[in-house]
Specification:
By secondary structure, the protein is α/β, with parallel strands linked by helices. It folds into 2 domains: 122 residues, Rossmann fold; 175 residues, Endonuclease Chain A (Endonuclease, Chain A). It is built from 9 helices and 13 strands. Strand 7, helix 6 and strand 8 form a beta-alpha-beta unit. Helix 2 packs antiparallel against helix 3 and helix 5 packs parallel to helix 6.
Length: 309
């Protein structure tokens, strides 16, 4: 599994030193995120900090750490929360529908998936940062949905991306995982490809690649949904190679890119997926900007979806 939700009882942070452990253990880059469960989770902690620490030197540090959690650690839960039940009862009730990877609470431990924050071990985080997934649309969606559904700006980087069938399926499943057609707060979605996107045995033909995108991509996108395509040339440096899914919140490196094979046997194969460290994400994000000069820009244009919801 890549990326998992650890439900953290607000009472776990009775001692504000627990925030340091959360920063070290959790975060998108570590493959372990914290759902806002209930949806007032962060606000409740902020109010608690103000009540207990306001006026002290520690208060500003705690507030800064809570702001950092919002960007790189927290995700929306979307789960029901009953006010007449305890936090633990609400968390435990999710096992029958959308279970958490772990329930972290200082109060009770009635199963293997429940523990105190100080009792978390390395085994609780196994394979969450770096794992392998099958080259199936479902596997791609499951691995990326927590990140994509909680992001507004998305960049797909694949030097071989084309408007051909396998890439159509890959793009469609990832955008559906992001909530295409279900939410409208996307800021920007981009696909970055290169002059390596060629048909086998043929030279690169930019106009042909553009026509494939114009013809095949709009029907995959819900009406009005926009994606900007960029083609790059690295001037012989051969640096336009890694495949990334990057957002303003985190990034994932894909070993094999976003092409979903049409043959069922090929879909049984696996690809390595790894969460990107924040510094690496920042570096790669900036390399793929319209004004960047790392690579030579060949062309870019916007496509607009035509599929009816």
């Amino acid at each position: 599994m890549l990326l998992a939700e650890f439900a953290v009882d607000p009472d776990t942070i009775a001692d504000w030193k627990a925030l340091a452990l959360i920063e070290a253990r959790f975060g998108f880059h570590n493959g372990a995120v914290i759902p806002e469960f209930p949806k007032t989770w962060l606000r409740d902690l902020s109010q608690k900090a103000r009540k207990e620490l306001y006026g002290s030197a520690q208060y500003s540090k705690v507030e800064e750490r809570l702001r950092d959690l919002k960007q790189g650690y927290l995700v929306g839960s979307g789960r029901p929360y009953l006010g007449d039940k305890s936090w633990f009862e609400n968390a435990r009730a999710q096992r029958d529908g959308k279970p958490f990877h772990r329930i972290v609470t200082p109060h009770e431990a009635d199963a293997d998936d429940v523990c105190d924050i100080w009792g978390l071990s390395d085994s609780d985080f196994d394979d969450l940062h770096d794992t392998q997934i099958q080259k199936k649309a479902k596997s791609y969606s499951e691995a990326t949905c927590l990140l994509l559904a909680n992001s507004k700006s998305i960049k797909f980087v694949d030097p071989y991306f084309s408007g051909r069938r396998g890439y159509q399926k890959g793009l469609r499943c990832l955008l559906e995982a992001a909530g295409m057609g279900k939410r409208r707060n996307f800021a920007k979605v981009e696909v970055h490809t290169s002059d390596l996107a060629v048909e086998k045995g043929k030279p690169f033909d930019l106009e042909h690649e553009k026509s494939l995108v114009r013809q095949n991509i709009p029907p995959l996108l819900t009406a009005g949904f926009e994606v900007i395509f960029y083609w790059w040339k690295d001037s012989g440096k051969k640096e336009v190679h890694p495949r990334y899914l990057m957002t303003e919140r985190a990034g994932i490196r894909f070993d094999r890119g976003f092409n979903i094979p049409s043959e069922l046997d090929a879909q049984e194969g696996v690809t390595d997926v790894t969460m990107m460290k924040p510094q690496k994400l920042n570096t790669e994000w900036n390399r793929y900007r319209p004004e960047a000069t790392v690579f030579q820009s060949l062309d870019n244009f916007r496509v607009v979806g035509t599929a009816q919801e």
